[in-house]
Amino acid sequence: MIQGRTWVFDQVPYIKSSAAVGGPFEAKGPLADDFDILHEDIWLGQDSFEKAEKVLMENACEYAIKKAGISKESIQFFLAGDLMNQVISSNFTARKLAVPYLGLFGACSTSMESLALGSLIVNSGFASHVLVATSSHNAAAEKQYRYPTEYGSQKPPTAQWTVTGAGAAVLSQEKTPEGIRVAAATIGRVVDMGISDPFNMGAAMAPAAVDTIEAHFRDLDLDENAYDLILTGDLGKIGHRIAADLLEKHGLKLSPDKFDDCGLMIYHESQPIQAGASGCACSACVTYGHVLNRMRKGELKKVMVVATGALLSPISYQQKESIPCIAHAVVLEKREGEE
Amino acid sequence: MSKESKKKLTPVQLEYHHFIKSRQPERPVWKNCIIAFLVGGSICLIGQLISTFYIHMFGFDKESAGDPTVATLIFISVLLTGLGVYDHIAQRAGAGTIIPVTGFANAMASAAIEHRSEGFVLGVGGNMFKLAGSVIVFGVFAAFVIAIIKVLLKTLLGGA
């Protein structure tokens, strides 16, 4: 069923299993217990950062499949994306999985883009098991988007730290004992507020998140208490504050304990992250690890995750283009009486 | 953001830029300048100590001591880059570690390390000057222009 630009999934898909994989920096963060695998070396025993990122995604996918208790062959479609040029981490993971694959790019919004599309496929009945995954690697992203990792540049207080990690989930038509399912998804549109500083992604992406959240609330005619938690993907300190203020200005006042940002949750404030965390893996790890764990425990019943993505390239910002941004929202729901 | 690019913004975008202005931290320019001055100065002081060491211990004169001094500073900088320490110092020191010769060495070494995974020729060789290249290009060009001005002035003033 479609309402405005929101897909409402009536019965399925259920989240059969999920996995989150992280690196050493994530292991020092407050959500360390919610990761399934934490690597102590950013190289993961590989000889390049790109290969390390691929291993992160492979780990997450393998673990999610294993936890689902199904065979690899039961996965009918694999939807994945990452930040690397030509989405290589996903392509190479798909090579190993050898299942029908759709590669996606939505920058850091890919986590929810893939979850939304995967849910659509399962809900439509065109598949009974779909695997979705996203990954990012701090050093690989720095190398591609900014400077060499060991280069001594001074990052401004608005900069963010790309998460090293990967998250994956298996979507299924079968009812699970946990009863966590994807209830709805709102597809974002590209919003560009003319911010051109690649070290200020939070401020660039906040309007896209606001646009999608407002569209979602309008489409489904909801009030501010509709969700136990609304999480933005990786707006960081600055973007989160701007988003909260913008929403309030537009008449949607979310209480601070119900509106948070994945980029503010994954690390301690004492870690050298400037304004917060970012990257595809940021929202993926927090959602597929921490949030789903809390839902399984019954602490949260209805959560909306709004993953935000900055659709720039290193060339586009050198050519002085501003940063187009997008946000996709997915609603996760634990159904009453399905414990 | 420059005035020129601000002109191209739509009214909605301009309103947003105004909206976020008070909601984001500015770069602490003055603090950065002072730290850069202190750290940059300290690196120069270390350089001076090394230079004095070479003059007194190895019999270099004031001018010829420059080469081994620079080589020593470059070696230390590359070593710290390789050990993964330099970028952490630079996050605090800013221009203080970029402007001296140590920053140039760091720019080259970091790019070389980063692109080692793409092989020696296309990786290390092709990318080593990715950041340092513009310093060389514009450094050499500036020297060329200044040299021409010097020659012109000399000819004009000398001929008069």
From TrEMBL, chain A:
Q: What is this protein called?
A: Stage V sporulation protein AD
| Single GO MF descriptor | acyltransferase activity
User: Which gene is annotated as encoding this protein in its UniProt record?
Assistant: spoVAD
What organism, scientifically named, is this protein from?
Thermoactinomyces mirandus
Pfam families, per the entry: SpoVAD
From TrEMBL, chain B:
Key word Flavoprotein present in the record? no
Q: Does the record bear Transferase in its keywords?
A: no
What stretches pass through the bilayer? 33-57, 69-86, 93-113, 133-153
Which SUPFAM superfamilies has this protein been placed in? MFS general substrate transporter (SSF103473)
The alphabetized UniProt keywords are: Membrane, Transmembrane, Transmembrane helix
* Gene3D superfamilies, alphabetized: MFS general substrate transporter like domains
- Name listed for the protein in its UniProt record: Stage V sporulation protein AC
Q: Which gene encodes it?
A: spoVAC
